[in-house]
Structure prediction request, 599 residues.
Amino acid sequence: MRNQLLRPFQYEKIELPKNNETTKGNSKTKDWAGTLRRLWGYLAAYQRKLLFVVLLVILSSALGLLGPFLIGIAIDRYLVTLDGQGLIYWLIGLLVVYILYSVTLWLQNMTMIQIAQRTIYSLRTQLFTHLHKLSIPFFDKRQHGELMSRATNDIENISSTLNTSVIQIISSVLTFIGILAVMLWLSPLLTALTLTIIPFMVFGMKWITKRTGTYFKEQQRHVGDMNGYIEETISGQKIVKTFSQEQRVIDEFYNKNQRLRKASFWAQTYSGFIPKLMNVLNNLSFTIIAAIGGVMALNQMISIGVIVIFTEYARQFTRPLNDLANQFNTLLSAVAGAERVFEMLDEPIERDVENAISLPSIKGDVTFNNVSFSYGEEKTLSNVSFEARAGETIALVGPTGAGKTTIINLLSRFYEFDSGQILLDGYDITKMKRENIRKQMAFVLQDTFLFEGTIRENIRYGKLKASDKEVEEAAKQANAHSFICKMTNGYDTVLSQDGGGISQGQRQLLAIARAILADPTLLILDEATSNIDTMTEIKIQEALQRLLKGRTSFVIAHRLNTVRQADKILVLQEGKVIEIGTHESLIEAKGHYFEMQAR
Ligand code: ADP
Prediction:
């Protein structure tokens, strides 16, 4: 039977905080009380269970203290008097106490973990749901790694604190108070003597933690630095290889690894002193109790049993203090984590205006009236006006940074424009439901995002309810069917998240298949510029012709062919529409477009 009080005394090493992100920057909490209150809001649903846990903790702490106490009494009553039968009864009693103690420990842990996991489950669900309702500008402003850390590490921190710390903190406080009370009751003098080690302990711990703190921080910094470097070099493997930077990368890693080794050496060495110091102090208090207690027993001031109880309690005395100190750190980082999670939950979500219009199907007339927009200080679009009739293909051309993508971003309502009007079938898009607009749009972008899953699932993303037959039909239309069939598992071939295993051109074909399946009224197409072989290029062109037909399409065009066939060409420069017309009319006008073509 494992028993907290009877098991060999051992101080745990100070644990490295599990999460770099949390400790890296701000682990300071701005509003402790507010965050705790809010966290309590989640726990409050389990009030009864929590009360049950608290009762169990009280019971187990008392039972834990009772063990050594009973041993002491057994010594006085039965061992000293050599009463064998009495001793056996007493031992059975002791066994029952320890069995009960284990049962209460087991029950309290199980109940608390259940509460913690349910709480974390709802917090995680809430966070993920909220995350998907936030606007694109929110994601622009933040590092993805940092957001991911909130959704994973911070939540994990809260989870582990709820799992164990709550019980630990209550039981440490109770055990400490209990031990102190019983010791005082048995012998105030011996208690006072036992307490003399506390100042040494506090002083020694302070001395050590001051040093370990610095080294741990250093270690933490190097761990973060090294992890970041590993992540960067793995995700950037191709770049590393193409620039033949392997050796440089390895050398740099060697340096980082060295720094981490040194910092870890000192951090671990100093923190290794803590258990040693504690053992020395405990042995010291053991000696004091044995010596002074012995003298007191000889003078009939206390019994032998009391000395045994004291030595046992004194060994345990510092443990709750140490536990509390450890738990406090965990609690601090959990509260800091909770604060960051709540911060994200407080971010306002994308909301439609009240009584937003829902248009289940649209024709696809798009009008921009004097639309101006800026991402930040600088104006990105100024007074953009144009009209696209249902079914027309609009080519957006102009230098990089001219604002082509921004026009698409505004039409999709990823960003709110500052002034002007965008109309869809004559309706102001700011008065429409976002979901409604986006449902009638499909995107075929340069960098096709593929999810980890089969080809079939990836195409089906365009219309989740599509049958296998519809998926294959869309793939045929997109000229993707033949290459899919050549793959080992056909439509069931699993693609990795970065789409490894298929070419850039094939990814485009899959994106087109996805869009064909979605059958949108509005189509956004960002033509790929990169290395696509001629055969695939022809297939893409063909598939695009089919896709564009009958839809209002906005094409960020790079191919002359696409531009030529467009119904309207918008020439953009520095956020302004400088020319509008067909290929022929713009060539004839001999303006910017003409010059661009001549180049
Ligand atoms: P294009 O598609 O024509 O290459 P964009 O519409 O992407 O140009 O960009 C227009 C301008 O807006 C550029 O100067 C670009 O730096 C800026 N920009 C684009 N996206 C953002 C963003 N999310 N935040 C801030 N500025 C942006």
In short: DSSP finds 21 helices and twelve strands in the chain. The first strand starts at residue 366 and ends at 373. The CA atoms of residues 450 and 500 lie 10 Å apart.
